[in-house]
Amino acid sequence: MSSPTDAHVPVINYDAGGYDYRSFWQGRDYEQWAEARVIRRTLRRTAPVQWMVDLGGGFGRNVPHELQRAQHVVLVDYSWTNLTNAENTLLADPRNAGRVFLIRGNIYHLPFRDAAFEMGATIRVLHHLAATQDALQEMGRVIGEHWLLDVPIKHHLLARMKAVVKGGGQKLRSREANELGTKDEPFWNYHLGAIRDTVRQQGWNDVLVASVANFRRWERAVPRPLRAPVRPLVYGVERVAQPMGRGWWGPAQFLWLTKRQPQQFAAPAASPSSTPPAPWDALASRMWCPACHADLAWTDEVATCSGCGKIFNRKGMIWDFVTE
Ligand SMILES: C[S@@+](CC[C@H](N)C(=O)[O-])C[C@H]1O[C@@H](n2cnc3c(N)ncnc32)[C@H](O)[C@@H]1O
Ligand SMILES: [Zn+2]
Fold it and tell me: Which ligand minimizes its atom distance to the CA of 1?
């Protein structure tokens, strides 16, 4: 059995040109606050869980919120820079030892068994996933019950206002994804209804929980001397807009998905032929080869696939499960 997606769907390279995604977040306190508010409130919809996965988790910006609700958080990302930053910050905190795990992986071919996690989150990632349906299928495969999915929509208020002036309203209404960015770094915005239909067809019930960061980059539109007095107003209206603007206002719409037939993780009958040392021994039984889905044989430094023979290495506290 293999993942449905062709192995060669391009993956965005966040490490190109020495880029450090942390710089994106400088001066974005409002967006950070708006998102954190929704994540914390939404994850409280369910009882605390043992295992959670943050898919495309970057440098672990949201992991502190996730640790409020999960005993173990596995951060999966393709970018070495982001993972190394996560290692240097999250894992430098001794309270996170044995609770935070860092995996370099590709969302299209995850190294986890079915329903390995009770809960998952995918935040600010979907716009990068060209083979959207396959990516949703593969992410949903590894989550047993609950999933917080951030959908970047194309028909948000600002886009529709721009379309009134510049035209292009029809494009915003269609169900096709809108391709933006450059040829080398394309990204996509979606029709919310199309994504909701896809996840429903893939076995999820969905609730639209919030419209998030409804005033993205508001500081740019307000002269510097007015920003301090306007700030409380923006934060106040954001609180109201999060529920009120669902489906139409903000560019990021958060879905809370629950599997129609929740799955509990079942450890394999024949457990892996060996286990790595702590802390990874806790995670190892939930993993398999991302290429062929066979068991892995672990040592301190490598995991070897018993099916295709691929070898996966550990670098510091990061295991590399990207197959190239
Ligand atoms: C905009 S960042 C968001 C990071 C994090 N979720 C956050 O909200 O701070 C997008 C992340 O998705 C990761 N990513 C994109 N495509 C991926 C893929 N196919 N597999 C794994 N990670 C991917 C990138 O490396 C990057 O860290
Ligand atoms: Zn294999």
Answer: 2
